[in-house]
Amino acid sequence: MQRLTVDFIISLDGYGAAEGWPGWWGMESPEYLGWLEQSPERDHPILMGATTYRLMSSLAASGEPGTDMLDAVPKVVFSSSLAEPLTWPNTRLVTTDAIAAVRALKEESDRPLRTLGSVSLCRSLLRAGLVDRYRVVVFPVITGATGTDRIFDGYPDVRLELVESRTFEGGLQLLEYVPTVLDGPPGVGPAAR
């Protein structure tokens, strides 16, 4: 069974974007972009929902730095609102149950899987026990007044075991964890699922 990594970029206060701020909060350091380009995961299939697909495919079409490398990567979009044909190269649309489809993808894929954004999809996959790694890159900004796309709202309680960390120039922090979904706070009955 292949590994599934959930990937997010976030502000320190847990937002995935902010009104009026440029992509990556204007802090996409050359070191971070280089890491993205050289990552062995750069060719792993990407799972995403319709909202992320709309955003990322439009950014890729406009030439946003760092998005051009995604054109050749296999992408799977889970949506009941999108219809074929999708315009972003190497993209497949799945309109059936995402949990069942991802479970099958983990069994059938010849490479590990990863997500891109897609807050509600990732939350559902985590709850279903399909997420093997949870990785965030924390950008050193607080966007309390302008932040949009709160990442962790509606999430279950999750214990995270740190398995990798790295600091990029500009203070960007990569944190990678093995997640364990909890039934509630530790010590208050059956804790781990």
Secondary structure layout plus pairing:
Elements lengths: L3 E8 L3 E4 L11 H9 L7 E4 H13 L12 E4 L12 E4 L3 H11 L4 E3 L3 H9 L5 E7 L7 E4 L7 E11 L3 E10 L12
Parallel strand pairs: 1-6, 1-7, 3-4, 3-6, 4-5
Antiparallel strand pairs: 2-8, 7-10, 9-10
Description:
With 193 residues, this protein is α/β, with parallel strands linked by helices. It has one domain: 3-Layer(aba) Sandwich (Dihydrofolate Reductase, subunit A). The protein is 22% helix and 31% strand. It has four helices and ten strands, in the order ββαβαββαβαββββ. The protein has helices at 30-38, 50-62, 98-108, 119-127; strands at 4-11, 15-18, 46-49, 75-78, 91-94, 113-115, 133-139, 147-150, 158-168, 172-181. The strands form two sheets. The protein has an eight-stranded mixed sheet with strand order 5-4-3-6-1-7-10-9. The longest helix has 13 residues, at 50-62. It is globular, with a radius of gyration of 17 Å. The protein starts with a strand and ends in a 12-residue tail after the last strand. 23% of the residues are buried. The model has no long low-confidence stretch (mean pLDDT 91).
